[in-house]
Amino acid sequence: MMRRAVCPGSFDPVTNGHIDVFRRAAALFDEVTVAVLINKKKSSMFTVEERIALLGAELADVPNIRIDSFHGLLVDYCRQHDIHAIVKGLRAVTDFDYELQMAQMNHGLAGIETLFVTTNPLYSYLSSSLVKEVATYGGDVRGLIPDGVHAALMAKLAESSDAAPAVAPPSPAPPA
Ligand code: PNS
Q1: Which terminus of the chain has a lower count of CB atoms within 10 Å, N or C?
Q2: What number is the average pLDDT over the span 134-142?
Q3: How remote is the CA of residue 97 from the centroid of ligand 1, in Å?
Q4: Is 175 among the domain residues?
């Protein structure tokens, strides 16, 4: 039997902490799917396609990792793809309550097991949202995200600062 697992998340964008978890999961399972949640309600910096491309570039050297996207319930995606386990990183106790709730819900819904990988302590304080916030205000996030993601993040920030100048241009004078 093929042992398949899924690593689900938003990955907006993927961090070195995520990559570490995926690689460790790939060493334990025959096939690991990194599944990007399509969430129309949550605003994101990167499109799902951009996030998939960044993940693909970073994980191209791991033959048993595939990248996909999903919407709806994770357990339905697992059923459709014959996946029996969810693998997630656990950073600190702050992750625990919510992760336990989701793990128990997913097990109750479909009998799917969730396995937790303790994150590398180097990345235990790391999150995609913190990376975006620090980078937005000019902080150095190299070393926390892959180089390709860093380049994409810098490009995204440059693009959005072009679109939204810090000082609003004067409004045109009303017609005489
Ligand atoms: O990176 P995130 O946003 O913390 O990931 C959360 C994710 C995608 C793992 C979770 O929101 C999820 O599984 N969503 C899919 C919808 C679903 O199955 N919800 C019930 C979970 S018990």
Answers
A1: C
A2: 97
A3: 14
A4: no
Whether residue 171 is contained in a domain is answered as no
Alpha-carbon distances of 161 from 63, 125, 152, 164, 168, rounded to whole Å? 38, 27, 14, 5, 12
pLDDT at 130 over 80: yes
In a domain, 42, yes or no: yes
In whole angstroms, what is the distance from residue 82 CA to residue 96 CA?
A: 27
Please state the domain count of the chain: 1
Specify if 173 maps to a domain.
Answer: no
C-alpha of residue 128 to centroid of ligand 1, in Å? 15
Q: Indicate whether 46 pLDDT > 70.
A: yes
Q: Whose CA is nearest to atom 20 of ligand 1?
A: 73
Q: Which residue bears the tokens 């860093």?
A: 150
77-87 confidence digits (pLDDT tens): 999 999 999 99
Q: State yes or no: pLDDT of 108 exceeds 60.
A: yes
Residue pair 118/12 in contact by the 8 Å Cβ criterion:
no
The set of catalytic residues is 18, 42, 91, 128
Q: Could you tell me the distance, in angstroms and rounded to a whole number, from the CA of residue 74 to the centre of ligand 1?
A: 7
